[in-house]
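Course exercise 7: structure representation. Students receive a sequence record and must write out the corresponding structure in token form. The form below is the worked example handed out in class, using Cyclin-D1-binding protein 1-like C-terminal domain-containing protein (194 residues). Read each field label carefully; the graders check that inputs and outputs are placed in the correct fields and that the protein name is recorded exactly as given.

STUDENT ID: A-19
EXERCISE PROTEIN: Cyclin-D1-binding protein 1-like C-terminal domain-containing protein
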Amino acid sequence: MEELKPACSSPGSDEDDTCEDPENGTLESESDDDFGADLSIPELKVAKEVTYIVSETLKMIQKLNRVIKNTIKLEKPRDTGVFVDSLEKLLKLCQGIGVGIDELGACVYPPQELRLMIQTLERMRENVGEIIADVLCFKNFSLVEAFFVTCRRLQSSITYIEVQLDRRIGPSGERNVTPFLKYYQYLRVPKSQR
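STUDENT ANSWER:
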């Protein structure tokens, strides 16, 4: 994300080496390799938030791998049918998160699809919740606790970005309001008006 640069706000602006060509309305820069030079400041902020979510998701997947590996070493599960079913479910949930990350990556490029981002983030947060529920069944509590903390941090980050995206969409009758966002809006209303 370090190479992403916001587009200049007005033609001829000296703030950045990227500016709009008045003849055809496209963005030009000194270097054609300026990845993300066509992002506005708000779009750049969203891209950085998505990058953070991807980073936290990778940390969660690494810890999940560690939990599974150590659970297999320590427990030597006898009933492989139930354990294998659990692992297959975890695999499908992780694949769903991978699809979500791909969708987020596609949504980051202009024009950013904020509603689709919110829906994707909501699905990812739900998948993380299901992963937590499955992993809590493992008996390796020391590793599960660290994994649980990582997952909760990821879920909190996803929720924060959902709120930020919802604010950016602005008031509209057709926006996607998740249950958490409804609760958040409820809390913002003064108690005397509830």
